[in-house]
């Protein structure tokens, strides 16, 4: 468990879920209130939840179980039984226009303003509501003022002048004073309090914003906008544990999202399983979070399966598809990623998820400039889009642009300091720059966030080795191996470390295990290093057959091909020397008593190989005058031994006759 992890489970932070008919009634009322005020995202989220309720008369399959998740212990009070199915509500349960709490004299202005608002003509909407004082038109007017100013400053972007920023901030100050005045006079409601919290966020008054958002959630707990805005401000696990929230069933969904954001994956799966059991098993929101959670836990195959199920349920949904594209990128599934990119463009080519998918597609094809273009486009649409900053840093690293990579990763950490990929990316960048102490710090931060991820542990060990701390490196590699080491990085690093500390027997054992586990289908530099070590290892121990076998394997790699050729010549030379020495040292009587099935073809075949290699060596030696004397002496000695060998063979043949 991480040092940051809290001791939380469903029993401690969860809230009992009422019967599904009560949940449905709450959602229907909330959806009308949200839609009347133009809070479209919250309204859409509520409608998704409404669809997931177990309604109707037809029985459904058993409650889903999350794969790989061990159900936690939950107190009896929270084990709410799955309710009986209910009939679909009648249309009379919904609000109609004349039921909205808006005075008749303001209704026409409100209806016209809402059509302008839906067309994103925020200033026109505000204009038609300037004389309205009831709560719904007042909220829509002030929210339109805020959206008009905010969208304008975002569209201008880097071209905005200081006077524009000053004007924008003056408007925010005016809105905050007006909303605070309404709140003090108790003429507002939870939605106006929510808008005050949003304005405080823009003014960077975060403590006041948290206070207002919590107050708003207490009044209108089904406003998902407020929960998400509050979640963006709670970026620390300790703050989350100290947060005082209303005892409402929506709190379960909030914790589910925050656990995912803060990398508390086991707690997230526990809360999701609880909500599944309560009747939300068909919620696309929960299913998508489970898929992302498996991605975070690096259960790649299960995560891909979950995303494919989401696509089958709702093919035109783009939310979280950027995470799915990351999975396809890691698995090098070009066809699937191409299909996903094509489908995303057809749905909406101006969504940040689409830009991220296209960036991954072009990056997988090696077109890094195009990939960066789409990541920049995503950031222009949403400057706080965390995934784009991290992926942009990776693209800069591909182009050897370390400075911009560091800036991109740092920006990602400003948005969310629990983004372990950004910490890991910074560690890689500083490692490439040779700043190993900085690299060690960033890798350790990533390891704190992902204590069971073998990649982080092995990265720490690799930097320790480069810093000369062999003991810590050794411990890190062993720990990485114990954590699974799916990519076999710990195995190859451990083998290389054994070579450094002069333990060749252990190194050979690790290299053999690496070759057996990693398979022979991947042609990597580590494979060539392993084969070359094993060839030399067996040569030193006069295991010429094994040495010859591994040296031949090295011919398949460009980085070891030439060295392997020279090693093969050495193996043939030494083997011939050994055979000749054995023959010369054996008494004649023992030779005559040997079995007549002696293979007389083996040595001539090796001599033929030797003659070919000698010709190449002699041609090379003629070009190098400095080594002529040494090589001629060696050749003369070898020829004398071969002559003596041939005389012995002739004598044996004569005696056999």
Descriptive keywords:
71% helix; TPR_rpt; mainly alpha; 33 helices; single chain
Summed up:
By secondary structure, the protein is mainly alpha-helical. The protein has helices spanning 10-13, 20-36, 40-52, 104-118, 122-128, 135-156, 162-184, 190-202, 206-219, 224-233, 237-242, 250-261, 265-280, 284-296, 300-313, 321-330, 334-348, 352-364, 368-381, 386-398, 402-415, 420-432, 436-449, 454-466, 470-482, 489-500, 504-518, 525-540, 544-554, 561-585, 588-593, 602-623, 628-656.
Instruction: Report the biggest beta sheet as strand number plus sense, adding barrel if it closes.
Output: none
The gross shape turns out to be elongated
Poorly predicted runs of 5 or more residues: 1-11, 56-63, 69-95, 594-603, 620-628
Count of runs of 4 or more consecutive helical residues: 33
Helix content: over 70%
Report the β-strand fraction as a percent range. Answer: under 5%
Radius of gyration computed on alpha carbons: 36 Å
Report, as a whole number of angstroms, the end-to-end distance.
Answer: 81 Å
Mean pLDDT score: 80
Structural class, please? mainly alpha
Q: Would you mind describing this structure in some detail?
A:
The protein is mostly helical and 657 residues long. It contains 33 helices and no strands. The N terminus is likely disordered.
Write the layout of secondary structure elements.
Elements: H1 10-13, H2 20-36, H3 40-52, H4 104-118, H5 122-128, H6 135-156, H7 162-184, H8 190-202, H9 206-219, H10 224-233, H11 237-242, H12 250-261, H13 265-280, H14 284-296, H15 300-313, H16 321-330, H17 334-348, H18 352-364, H19 368-381, H20 386-398, H21 402-415, H22 420-432, H23 436-449, H24 454-466, H25 470-482, H26 489-500, H27 504-518, H28 525-540, H29 544-554, H30 561-585, H31 588-593, H32 602-623, H33 628-656
């Amino acid at each position: 468990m991480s040092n940051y992890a809290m001791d939380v489970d469903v029993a401690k932070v969860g809230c009992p879920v009422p019967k599904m008919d009560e949940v449905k009634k709450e959602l229907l009322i909330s959806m009308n209130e949200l839609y009347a005020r133009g809070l479209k995202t919250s309204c859409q989220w509520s409608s998704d939840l409404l669809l997931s309720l177990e309604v109707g008369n037809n029985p459904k399959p058993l409650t889903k179980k999350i794969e790989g998740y061990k159900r936690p212990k939950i107190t009896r009070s929270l084990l709410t039984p799955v309710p009986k199915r209910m009939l679909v509500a009648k249309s009379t349960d919904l609000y109609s226009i004349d039921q909205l709490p808006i005075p008749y004299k303001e209704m026409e202005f409100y209806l016209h303003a809402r059509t302008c608002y839906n067309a994103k003509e925020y200033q026109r909407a505000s204009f038609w509501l300037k004389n309205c004082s009831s709560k719904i038109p007042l909220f829509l007017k002030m929210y339109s003022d805020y959206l008009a100013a905010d969208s304008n400053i975002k569209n201008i972007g880097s071209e905005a002048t200081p006077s524009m920023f000053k004007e924008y901030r003056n408007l925010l100050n005016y809105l905050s004073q007006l909303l605070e005045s309404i709140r003090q006079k108790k003429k507002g409601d939870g939605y106006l309090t929510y808008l005050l919290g949003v304005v405080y966020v823009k003014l960077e008054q975060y403590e006041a914003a948290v206070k207002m958002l919590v107050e708003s959630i207490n009044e209108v707990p089904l406003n998902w906008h407020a929960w998400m805005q509050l979640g963006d401000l709670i970026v620390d696990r300790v703050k989350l544990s100290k947060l005082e929230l209303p005892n409402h069933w929506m709190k379960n969904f909030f914790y589910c999202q925050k656990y995912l954001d803060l990398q508390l994956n086991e707690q997230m799966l526990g809360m999701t399983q609880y909500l599944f059991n309560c009747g939300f098993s068909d919620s696309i929101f929960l299913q998508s979070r489970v898929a992302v959670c498996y991605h975070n836990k690096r259960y790649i195959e299960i995560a891909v399966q979950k995303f494919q199920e989401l696509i089958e349920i709702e093919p035109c949904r783009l939310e979280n598809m950027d995470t799915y594209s990351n999975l396809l990128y890691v698995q090098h599934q070009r066809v699937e990623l191409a299909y996903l990119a094509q489908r995303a463009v057809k749905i909406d080519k101006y969504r940040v998820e689409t830009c991220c998918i296209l960036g991954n597609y072009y990056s997988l094809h090696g077109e890094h400039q195009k990939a960066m273009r789409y990541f920049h486009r995503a950031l222009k649409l949403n400057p706080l889009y965390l995934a784009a900053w991290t992926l942009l840093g990776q693209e800069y690293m591909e182009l050897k642009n370390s400075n911009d990579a560091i800036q991109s990763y740092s920006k990602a950490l400003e948005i969310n300091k629990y983004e372990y990929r950004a910490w890991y990316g910074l560690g890689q960048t500083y490692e490439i720059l040779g700043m190993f102490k900085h690299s060690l710090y960033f890798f350790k931060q990533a390891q704190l966030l992902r204590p069971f991820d073998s990649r982080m542990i092995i990265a720490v060990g690799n930097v320790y080795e480069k810093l000369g701390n062999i003991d810590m490196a050794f411990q890190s590699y062993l720990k990485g191996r114990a954590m699974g080491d799916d990519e076999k990085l710990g195995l190859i690093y451990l083998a290389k470390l054994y070579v450094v500390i002069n333990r060749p027997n252990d190194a050979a054992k690790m290299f053999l295990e690496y070759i057996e586990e990693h398979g022979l289908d991947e042609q990597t530099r580590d494979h060539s290093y392993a084969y070359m070590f094993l060839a030399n290892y067996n040569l030193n121990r006069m295991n010429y057959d094994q040495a010859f076998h591994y040296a031949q394997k090295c011919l398949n790699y460009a980085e070891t091909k030439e060295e392997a050729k020279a090693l093969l010549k050495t193996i043939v030379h030494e083997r011939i020397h050994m055979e000749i020495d054995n023959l010369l040292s054996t008494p004649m009587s023992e030779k005559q008593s040997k079995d007549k099935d002696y293979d007389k073809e083996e040595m001539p075949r090796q001599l033929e190989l030797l003659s070919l290699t000698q010709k190449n060596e002699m041609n090379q030696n003629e070009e190098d005058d400095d080594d002529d004397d040494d090589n001629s002496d060696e050749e003369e000695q070898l020829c004398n031994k071969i002559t003596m060998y041939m005389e012995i063979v002739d004598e044996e043949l004569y005696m056999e006759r």
